[in-house]
Amino acid sequence: MFIEPNISGERRGWIEVICGSMFSGKTEELIRRLKRAKIANLKVEIFKPAIDVRYDETDVVSHDSNSIHSTPIDNSQTILLLANDVDIVGIDEAQFFDDEIINVCEKLALKGIRVIVAGLDMDFKGRPFGQMPKLLAIADFITKLHAICVRCGHLANISYRKSAEEGQVLLGEQDVYEPRCRKCYNEGQSRLVGSEHN
Ligand SMILES: Nc1ncnc2c1ncn2[C@@H]1O[C@H](COP(=O)(O)OP(=O)(O)O)[C@@H](O)[C@H]1O
Ligand SMILES: Cc1cn([C@H]2C[C@H](O)[C@@H](COP(=O)(O)O)O2)c(=O)[nH]c1=O
Ligand SMILES: [Zn+2]
To answer: Where is the active site (predicted)?
Structure first.
């Protein structure tokens, strides 16, 4: 699928987006693609939002402890300054980036760079998260991954928040979130609504 097209010597870039719920394997898939590119001697730069220091200050780390070195940044435009002379740019936790991430990805792709973005498509309420809907719209290739529902074992498409915290951004792991299928998610939500009326 991701073969470098090289028609008449002209390098073309493109945008790949990997999305899904928490624990669906987005970071593992991002790391897998980037490590393969490194094996092919391609120059790779990886960025993550500076707020995401869950496992490591700098590295991108999956829930299964796979990791790759990255640069934490506060502002998506920084990517344009730091991604000089690279073949591939990887971006993790894209849902946390500012609105400019769209233009940044477009500019990189226009420069001939392969851009691989991973992020949550939905927040804990099932709302589209940050700039992810727009990234999915401009993507050339989309991969939607699923975790396993911790309640019933079916495919999970959403991250259920176990705490009563209402803010959209709340960093956490299994302590705060569990991946659930649509049915188990809805049962959990109904229980919450029910308890509000009691
Ligand atoms: N319920 C679950 N379903 C699938 N994988 C899970 C689950 N709970 C823990 N994991 C672990 O999470 C890993 C995926 O981690 P990661 O790539 O960091 O996911 P994401 O970036 O989508 O949150 C899996 O390989 C597995 O080891
Ligand atoms: C659903 C949801 C998640 N978050 C946070 C929780 C984690 O710190 C990250 C997602 O990490 P992952 O690599 O996809 O496992 O996002 C949040 O802030 N708000 C939410 O609604
Ligand atoms: Zn379920």
So the answer is: 93
Largest CA distance in the chain: 69
pLDDT at 164: 95
Q: So which residues are the catalytic ones? A: 93
90 is a domain residue: yes
> What is the count of structural domains for the chain?
1
Residue 91 sits in which domain range? 7-147
- Per residue in 135-160, pLDDT tens? 999 999 999 999 999 999 999 999 99
Cβ of 149 closer than 6 Å to ligand 2, yes or no, is no
Task: Let me know if residue 152 belongs to a domain.
Answer: no
pTM of the model as a whole? 0.94
- 197: pLDDT strictly greater than 50: no
Q: Is residue 195 part of a domain?
A: no
Task: Tell the residue number behind the tokens 């991701």, with chain if given.
Answer: 2
Is 70 touching ligand 1 by the criterion CB < 6 Å? Answer: no
Distance CA 74, CA 50 (A): 5
Contacts of 65 (CB under 8 A, 6+ apart): none
